[in-house]
Amino acid sequence: MTEEHARLAVLSDIHGVLPALETVLAEPEVAAADRIVLTGDITAGPQPAEVLDRLREEGERVLWVGGNADRELVEYRRGARTDIPDPIGPYAARQLREDQVDFLAGLPRTLTLRVRGLGTVLFCHATPRDDEELVLVDSRPDRWAEVFTGLDPGIGTVVCGHTHMPYVRLAHGRLVVNPGSVGMPYGRPGAHWCLLGPGTDLRVTPYDIPAAVARLTAECAYPDIADWADYFLHARATDTEVLAAWGPKAGS
């Protein structure tokens, strides 16, 4: 019989921001969860090697799913691409050790678990079929039908990340959960994550953002780190702006 988990902590889109990750891992309910599930874009940011090392300290408690940004770092390091759309991407790729590149290359694109109260849950980065496809809280039903094509009918819940904005919604009878972003939130600051089992509980952990900006600026050699940290940690991109920009591609 497949193991059923009572309580999972889900962290997505950490993007190499170690201070944000540390504040979430310090949450008592994260420490008490059966497992920590990562839904991708773990490393593309200012402290990719440090973030990977910290997460791997948790051992088998962490269950991993790779995201498009993790894949891009691997492809860049292995010569499969010469650029990365995210400006900080090449810097992040160069910070990774070879063993870390190999580790990222081996991450699965999806993960299926049984969770108490939610049944069979599929974890992915963007959508079940693609690691950079866009769906949003206001995507139309026909868009959700499209991205669910071929999905096992026994999967009643889909947990995704990628868009850095938390939400819970129903789509064609399936519960869709996006925990938001730990390291690069859109809409409001803080480290966003969620608890699963027996229900869904979206969380945001506040932390000292000015101190985190100062720490990243001091510890990271990326040339534009001060501006990068100020913009993303303060969540200066609003949810309204992002929804408007991505809506056409996401079928909103």
TrEMBL record:
<dbReference type="InterPro" id="IPR011152">
    <property type="entry name" value="Pesterase_MJ0912"/>
</dbReference>
<dbReference type="InterPro" id="IPR029052">
    <property type="entry name" value="Metallo-depent_PP-like"/>
</dbReference>
<dbReference type="InterPro" id="IPR024654">
    <property type="entry name" value="Calcineurin-like_PHP_lpxH"/>
</dbReference>
<protein>
    <submittedName>
        <fullName>Phosphoesterase</fullName>
    </submittedName>
</protein>
<dbReference type="GO" id="GO:0005737">
    <property type="term" value="C:cytoplasm"/>
</dbReference>
<feature type="domain" description="Calcineurin-like phosphoesterase">
    <location>
        <begin position="7"/>
        <end position="193"/>
    </location>
</feature>
<dbReference type="GO" id="GO:0016791">
    <property type="term" value="F:phosphatase activity"/>
</dbReference>
<dbReference type="InterPro" id="IPR050126">
    <property type="entry name" value="Ap4A_hydrolase"/>
</dbReference>
<dbReference type="Pfam" id="PF12850">
    <property type="entry name" value="Metallophos_2"/>
</dbReference>
<comment type="similarity">
    <text>Belongs to the metallophosphoesterase superfamily. YfcE family.</text>
</comment>
